[in-house]
Write a structure and sequence with these properties.
By secondary structure, the protein is mainly alpha-helical. The protein has a domain of 62 residues. The longest helix is centred in the middle third of the chain and has 75 residues. It is rod-shaped. The mean pLDDT is 84.
Length: 109
């Protein structure tokens, strides 16, 4: 009776060793797979950060350009520049303006 017990114990031990080897292999493969995923995610994150910095630089450049355009618009709308423009186009100043009311009949058919 003890002989059968010893054989089954040896059989289970070799089976147990195979199971541990398979489990160890699965753990190693899982660690390798997770490492590859980590590297890919980190690489993607670095790429996104580069694009964000590039877009922030573009935003600051466009803000400067916008400020320069606002200054130029303000200069063109200044009374001094408008007077120069009017004089260069040979325009004359309007005299007294008379508005027609509703009760007047002028040029009516």
């Amino acid at each position: 009776m003890t002989a059968c017990y010893i054989k089954s114990k040896k059989f289970n031990k070799s089976r147990h060793d195979r199971g541990l080897a398979a489990l160890s292999l699965c753990i190693v493969l899982a660690m390798a797979g997770l490492s590859v995923l980590y590297v890919l995610q980190t690489n993607g994150l670095v790429g996104c950060n580069y694009q964000i910095r590039k877009q922030e630089q573009r935003i600051s450049q466009l803000e400067l350009e916008s400020q320069q355009l606002e200054i130029e618009i303000a200069q063109w709308q200044s009374p001094v520049n408008l007077e120069k423009l009017v004089n260069s186009l040979s325009m004359i100043e309007a005299g007294k303006v008379i508005y027609l009311g509703e009760d007047k009949e002028v040029a009516r058919r």
